[in-house]
Design goal:
Layout: H1 6-21, H2 27-33, E1 38-41, H3 45-51, H4 60-65, E2 75-77, E3 85-88, H5 100-126, H6 135-159, H7 165-186, H8 196-214, H9 220-241, H10 243-259, H11 264-274, H12 276-282, H13 290-294, E4 296-298, E5 301-303, H14 308-328, H15 330-338, H16 340-349, E6 354-356, H17 357-369, H18 371-395, H19 427-442, H20 445-477
Helix pairs in contact: 1-5, 5-6, 5-18, 6-18, 7-9, 8-20, 10-11, 10-15, 10-18, 10-20, 11-14, 12-20, 14-18, 15-18, 16-17, 18-20
């Protein structure tokens, strides 16, 4: 309470509620197991034998008369009239799902993180605590870290696949996004307005005064180069992690549109949610976004529709709204994924030959068991984009437009290194204050504004590339 005041109490309360209420009240479990999603149950051996026109052989003599031995599994014709039964997904059914516990914990943590952030925003608006640390930023940073960890966990599963095709796809897209990130970083601010270069220039200027005191000013270009190389490596890694989520999004989008063929409003919402990353990418392309709204052509004159700060506010609200829209159609996409079992059976009936009962059962069960992985692939980019946007607002010193805008960023004084104090009792306090001042002078809101603007844009750009490639793949390559 003495350091962060009421924020510590709210943060501890949120962590306690998340731990105590998870078995009883979970948003992630409600999203998946409220009964609206229906899974397809695999047929039993007896049902397959009945559809094939023969009884299930029990004795060894009966098995030989039906052309089966102990080493030969039960097989049926592929063109049997197989109809799959459905049942709603319940909390008990979810216990067998792969990565279900990781999915539940991650989504619930993101929900509590957003709630803590909303509280801290309201607290700062009403109380205006100048000397308190915004603990909502810490929750958002943890959510971003956990998002990347979840992406890595799912991608590591693909790398362990026996076939190896998924591994090649991830490596190929990682190299492609490596090149794309280098191209994005060299484009001028007149076209992609991240503000990363002005932020790095401010960090370099502040670092120079510190390094000169130690005689290490020659390391400044290396530090700047190292930061950009690290950022490019992070972008390549994020691109590889977002490859299969984008491919899966394209597949579920096409299937969801097919399932909502008689619902025009639902189709419009699905199209808008699919195009949401495209809108995010466009909002940082200066000639067709900010310049157009700030200097809109009106005949021979130009009209300013909104100010710079108003455009930043509108952009923040637009991203939040698009994230909520994608969250609203989550179940449509998950049901479309579960429908792959029925589509696979329909495709099997068009083929000739025989298939083992075990293969039918394994294929249908596998689709259901991976629904939590698909949920992570769908919700992960939404959560990452949302919390990068929240960090962009707070650390970048933007405004939501609901209360008076924060004052313009004052020029920061050159930070100085902490010097030893003569009084032992004040050493710790003075050192902490000086180190905090140094870090605050180096990592300014201008730097965070450029960094999180670039990360938000990059996550959306990766989704655009992978989902568009997924559309092409599922419509043309997979069908051929």
């Amino acid at each position: 309470m003495a350091v962060m005041g009421v924020q510590v109490v709210v943060s501890l309360l949120a962590a306690s509620l998340m731990q105590k209420l998870a078995p009883h009240c979970s948003f992630a479990r409600w999203l998946l197991c409220d009964g609206s999603l229906r899974r397809y149950k695999h047929p039993s051996d007896e049902e397959l034998c009945a559809l094939a026109g023969k009884q299930r052989p029990k004795a060894r003599r009966d098995r030989r008369m039906n052309g089966m031995t102990d080493d030969k599994p039960l097989s049926v014709p592929r063109d049997i009239d197989l109809r799959l039964d459905t049942s709603p997904i319940t909390a008990v059914d979810a216990l067998v799902l792969r990565y279900f516990l990781e999915y539940q914990w991650f989504v619930d943590f993101a929900v509590y993180s957003t709630a803590v952030y909303i509280f801290t925003e309201g607290y700062y608006c009403l109380a205006d605590p100048q000397k308190e640390t915004n603990i909502g930023v810490l929750w958002c940073l943890l959510t971003v870290v956990f998002s990347i960890k979840i992406f890595f966990t799912v991608m590591r599963h693909y790398f362990r696949s026996e076939e190896g095709g998924e591994r090649s796809v991830c490596l190929t897209f990682a190299f492609f996004f490596l090149l794309l990130a280098m191209v994005a970083l060299v484009i001028r601010e007149d076209y992609l307005e991240f503000g990363l270069e002005p932020g790095l220039a401010g960090v370099s200027s502040n670092l120079e005064s510190i390094l000169k005191q130690r005689g290490w000013d020659w390391t400044l270009p290396l530090a700047r180069l190292g930061f950009k190389l690290g950022l490019v490596a992070l972008c390549s890694f994020l691109g590889a992690c977002l490859t299969f989520p984008g491919l899966r999004l394209a597949q579920t989008h096409l299937d969801a549109l097919r399932m909502a063929a008689d619902k025009p409003l639902t189709q419009v919402l699905l199209h808008l949610s699919f195009l949401a990353p495209v809108m995010v990418v466009v909002m940082w392309i200066r000639p067709i976004s900010r310049d157009f709204l700030l200097h809109a052509p009106m005949g021979k004159q130009t009209v300013q529709i909104m100010s710079d700060s108003a455009y930043n506010t509108v952009r923040l609200w637009t991203i939040v709204g698009l994230c909520l829209l994608r969250l609203a159609v989550t179940r449509r996409h998950l049901q479309a994924y579960l429908g792959l079992a029925e589509r696979w059976v329909e495709q099997m009936r068009k083929e000739a030959g025989r298939i083992t009962a075990l293969e039918i059962q394994r294929k249908i069960t596998r689709i259901y068991c991976y629904v939590s992985v698909v949920s992570l692939q769908y919700l992960g980019p939404i959560i990452l984009t949302l919390h990068c946007t929240l960090l962009l607002k707070t650390l970048g010193n933007h405004s939501w437009g609901l209360y008076p805008e924060p004052p313009p960023l004052p020029p920061t004084a050159a930070p100085t290194l902490p010097r030893p104090s003569s009084k032992d009792g004040e050493d710790v306090r003075v050192a902490v204050e000086q180190i905090t001042g140094v870090l605050g002078g180096i990592f300014t809101p201008l730097f965070f504004r450029g960094l999180f603007a670039f990360l938000t844009w990059w996550v959306a750009a990766c989704q655009v590339v992978t989902s568009l490639f997924g559309l092409y793949f599922h419509q043309y390559l997979a069908a051929s």
